[in-house]
Amino acid sequence: MMNNRFRKEIMKNASESKLSKDKLQKRLKEEGILKMKNCRPANAERPTTARISSVQFHPGAQVVMVSGIDNAISLFQVDGKTNPKIQSIYLEKFPIFKACFSANGEELLATSIRSKVLYVYDMLAGKLTPVHQVRGLKEKIVKRFEVSPDGSFLLISGIAGFSHLLSMKTKELIGSMKINGRISASTFSSDSKRIYTSSGNGEVYVWDVNSRKCINRFFDEGSLYGLSIATSKNGQYVACGLSIHPPTCPSSERFVEHLFMPDTMFSMYDPKRLPEEDRLYIGLV
């Protein structure tokens, strides 16, 4: 069942703020059962022979990308029936840790689990280019990265708390930022003007992209181990995914998602967080 009930603590988006009270209540009324249909696997024509590492839809075409630690990236035309394979790109001795489209979908980027090489595949020209070394970047392994929504920047998460901001166009280093401890997750704001970095101990850092200066930092109360972080497209919320058990806990884990109001993140050490009942809990045993 869908539980899409309106809460006063949640801000309305731009379109909802213009609706009358009656229309808003009608829009937020529970609709009953959400029906879904199980379709043919997207990668049925070319299943990976090892663990899948990344799956992503193309931002402008009906295409899905699937990569795995079997050194291959495959593209499929998604129709829900046959999902024909468009092509596969094989990277020799390069078990893929992450693959991702650029914001405009013209490039495909890939990193490995034990390499500092960044592969860039030109979707229009069909050309594969390895970036062996970024000047000024001293990381021995490049694994985790994020692409800014406006397509201008590439953020690489390094070791010892360093984040490196690169130009998406030239793949050159612009500057670096550092947090205390280990980086667990990073993301850009929807307007690409800020970066949110979560540390392993649950502390969140907010950075200004232009100056690369930290404009605020705060602890996500109750977090023992930060796992992920994401921003909403309308810029109204920041979600922090975390574990409330230490990472060494062998028997079970419980994952929680906290929602914050970004406007309170830039001036408050204890920013506004949505109340307990608005958290998402996921238990694994």
UniProtKB/TrEMBL annotation:
Which intervals carry biased composition (Basic and acidic residues)?
1-11
Location in or out of the cell? Nucleus, Nucleolus
Keyword hit for Acetylation: no
Q: Which family does it belong to?
A: Belongs to the WD repeat UTP18 family.
**What's in the keyword line of the UniProt record?**
Nucleus, Repeat, rRNA processing, WD repeat
| UniProt KW Repeat keyword | yes
Q: What is this protein called?
A: U3 small nucleolar RNA-associated protein 18-like
Q: Pfam families from the xrefs?
A: WD40
User: Which GO biological process entries does UniProt record here?
Assistant: rRNA processing
Record's InterPro entries? Utp18 (IPR045161), WD40/YVTN_repeat-like_dom_sf (IPR015943), WD40_repeat_CS (IPR019775), WD40_repeat_dom_sf (IPR036322), WD40_rpt (IPR001680)
Which residue intervals make up region (Disordered)?
A: 1-22
Question: PROSITE patterns attached here?
Answer: WD_REPEATS_1, WD_REPEATS_2
GO CC aspect terms: Pwp2p-containing subcomplex of 90S preribosome; small-subunit processome
For this UniProt entry, which segments traverse the membrane?
none
